[in-house]
Amino acid sequence: MVYFGENFFWLLPVTSAGTGWTLYPCVQFKPKLVKYLYLELWILYLYRPCDSTSVFRPRLAVVSRVTLPSALFTPAVILAASCLPAESTMFLVGLSGGIASGKSTVVAMLRELGCAVIDADVIAREVVQPHFKAYRQIVRYFGTEILLENGEINREALGNIIFSHPEKRQLLNSITHPEIQKEMLKQILKHFVLGCRYVILDIPLLFETNRLTKFMKYTVLVYCDPPTQLSRLRKRSGLSQAEAEARIAAQLPLDQKRKLATHVIDNSGERESTRRQVLRLHARLQASLDFLWARLAAGTVVVGLGGLVYLLLRHFIS
Ligand SMILES: CC(C)(COP(=O)(O)OP(=O)(O)OC[C@H]1O[C@@H](n2cnc3c(N)ncnc32)[C@H](O)[C@@H]1O)[C@@H](O)C(=O)NCCC(=O)NCCS
Ligand SMILES: Nc1ncnc2c1ncn2[C@@H]1O[C@H](COP(=O)(O)OP(=O)(O)OP(=O)(O)O)[C@@H](O)[C@H]1O
């Protein structure tokens, strides 16, 4: 029976780290959780109550018999993963801004350059179509008076309610946001399978909700100075000064958001000036496909194999 005694502890971090990284692409949104759970399971198993060393040693022997093949197997999987080209990994870029600050304008330019974009506003419109769960909940809480004659939601009426009542806005957000996020996740996975190198997520409330920023490699803010934002919003939507101000006030001020973003595109001026900034951003995104994954995988392989060779040598020499 293979028994490595106290050397077993070498294998524990090796297999835990290895398995964590093996699972990483499958669970890229909870990688830490998976690693800790795995590690904790092993620790719990090791330290469960036992009366004497005579019971403890055979238990360790059983654990090491399971651990050894898994330690051998895990570096092999990671080695295979590290041989994958860098194109097989994907990162996310969060794009945000304020109402009428120019997100759609920037997104259109990025699409022209061939970027994959997922638009939260488009998804927000889809998930409130009749027969969807969010639609039923909106009708239950806001009443049938926010419906058009054809049964669809009257967006103008609903907008007038939620932009003048913060608590109703929160209620609408709590209905729609989980559905929007589920659909975004599906689309991200679809782009991953299709082999996209990065995906841009256009999320107007990215910094307000702040739940998704940790998954973004970069965050881009489409900025616009406040007077220009107000006048563009009024011109586009035909809103009164007070209505437009209420909509802008429903979001974090752009000056505050620009401090939170890793990149800022200033869309206060001419479209051509914006286009030049978009071109620079695009070049940086293209250049930032680094080899982090491959480097981490190679590091784990070296540590794992080194630990195993050391253990095997000690086992067979003694
Ligand atoms: C209130 C609704 C019906 C108004 O629809 P309308 O067609 O007039 O506007 P549209 O959906 O195109 O949104 C325009 C802009 O308004 C702003 N906005 C929309 N919803 C919100 C909100 N809940 N809080 C603050 N700003 C918002 C965003 O900047 C967005 O880009 C609609 O925006 C909605 O259902 N909002 C809730 C879902 C949501 O939060 N969407 C934002 C994307 S996550
Ligand atoms: N640089 C620019 N110069 C002049 N007009 C612009 C410029 N950028 C955008 N606009 C106009 O401003 C309005 C808002 O732009 P856009 O729709 O891109 O903003 P948005 O952030 O996507 O808006 P929302 O979040 O409200 O949907 C549009 O009417 C657009 O044509």
TrEMBL record:
One of its GO terms (biological process) is coenzyme A biosynthetic process. It comes from the Eukaryota. GO terms for molecular function: ATP binding; dephospho-CoA kinase activity. The chain crosses the membrane at residues 292-313. Gene3D superfamilies: P-loop containing nucleotide triphosphate hydrolases. It holds the Pfam family CoaE. Keywords: ATP-binding, Membrane, Nucleotide-binding, Transmembrane, Transmembrane helix. GO terms for cellular component: cytoplasm. PROSITE patterns: DPCK (PS51219). Belongs to the CoaE family. This is Dephospho-CoA kinase domain-containing protein. It comes from Otus sunia (Oriental scops-owl).
